[in-house]
Amino acid sequence: MDFVLFAGTAVLGRYFVTPRKSLKTSTSIAAISWETLQQQNAVTSNALLEEYKDSRRFAKLAAYEGDLTIQRDQEDASKLIKGIEFAQQKGVIDPNFVPEPYIPMDVLGKTPDQVADLILQHVNEHQTTEQNGLVLVLVGLSGTGKGTTVAKLNEKLQQQGLSVTNWSNGNVFRSVTLLATTWCEQHHADDLEAALTKDNLASWMSMLSFGKNPEGVYDIRIQGLGLDCYVSKIQNTLLKSPTVSKYIPTVAQYTQGEVIVFAAQAVEILQHAGVCVLLEGRELTVNYVRTPHRFVLHLSDESLIGKRRAAQRLMAAALHDAEQQRADNSSVKEILEAALDRLVEDITQN
User: Which InterPro entries match (predicted)?
Assistant: First the structure.
């Protein structure tokens, strides 16, 4: 359930300018200033969307990025479906499980703050007083702003004095992969995929537990095969070793069900402890977490997905060039134009 960058949905109001070239240039510089470019957020992307709304070059880049994003989403979904079906066949997860319904939310024309406020409004109207913590799920296609919406929700809930955490299955998959590769090393097994049997996976998952570490923080503990450590202590070392990183895709394909069950249990523990848990990901992976607070973000104008991604790529490339050239307001427009030309040339050659 990794997070994605929210590029913003509110498009800035159109500028009413005369066709005179000098006035158009002045407006462009004002719209895309050095300060705006440096922000690298929804403000920047919205300004770029407005500035290049009539640009054929930008439209070409946006169409390419939109098609690529949809293609990746479809490929990821296909792999995920296979993993879920495999878990159902093994009896790890219930094929007849029905999650609570999702609440559709069109984010077109809304800022991240507005989306987060609408979600919290719904939560406040439906959260009962006897419930301890809060579990809030967000799903949607890439480019609909799940990651930044989650960040805004985290910020707003903390401002209310609540304990908040963002749950991700990433480290669970890495922990299982660490156990799998360790087992293979100890048993001199060269074929890791062959080692991913139902019994082995059940054994490795039993070596994972969730609770408070010695510092009093909720954490995943790995105990088995000679390992005894908390994920927070090894997440940037052992769990990101070349061996673990290499085999994560293979292990993930076989352990979707096991990890989903583990995550659901961990989230339940956090909720009972009064923690607000925020989950962002794909429906098939978060469906098994019980909560009435489910939201699916979508854009009624799906072309904006590609436009947002194009804006993100353009602003990142232009910022890099601007920093190298120590740019100021007078040169930002020129740098943007050069960066856009380069990006379009790259996709044309590919």
Answer: P-loop_NTPase (IPR027417)
Using CA atoms, how far apart are residues 240 and 313, in angstroms rounded to an integer?
Answer: 26
Domain ranges of the chain: 54-98+301-349, 102-300
Angle at 314 between CA 57 and CA 141, to 5 degrees: 95
- Picking from 274, 350, 340, the residue whose alpha carbon sits closest to that of residue 312 is 340
CA 55 to chain centre: 29
CATH 1.10.3470 fits 102-300, yes or no: no
Q: Is 235 helix (H, G, I), strand (E, B) or coil?
A: coil
Q: Compute φ and ψ for 122, nearest 5 degrees.
A: -65, -40
Q: Which residues have CB under 8 Å from 88's CB, separation 6+?
A: 94, 95, 257
pTM of the model: 0.76
Q: Helix axis angle, 21-31 relative to 42-51, nearest 10°?
A: 160
> Cα(first)–Cα(last) distance of the chain, in Å?
30
Residue 17 pLDDT exceeds 70: no
Least confident among 30-34, 117-121, 328-332: 30-34
β-pair type (218-224, 208-212): antiparallel
Is the pLDDT confidence value at 23 over 60? Answer: no
112 pLDDT band, cuts 50/70/90, is: confident
pLDDT at 21 over 50: no
CA dihedral 87, 91, 95, 98 (to 10 degrees): -100
CA 331 – CA 34 distance, rounded (Å): 9
119 has which bridge partners? none
- In angstroms, rounded to a whole number, what is the distance separating the alpha carbons of residues 277 and 209? 18
Six token digits for residue 232 = 């927070």
Reduced 3-state DSSP string for 181-195: HHHHHHCCCCCHHHH
Query: Cα-flanking dihedrals φ and ψ of residue 211, to 5°?
Result: 180, -165
Element (H, E) at 121: helix 112-126
Q: At what angle do helices 21-31 and 329-349 cross, to 10 degrees?
A: 90
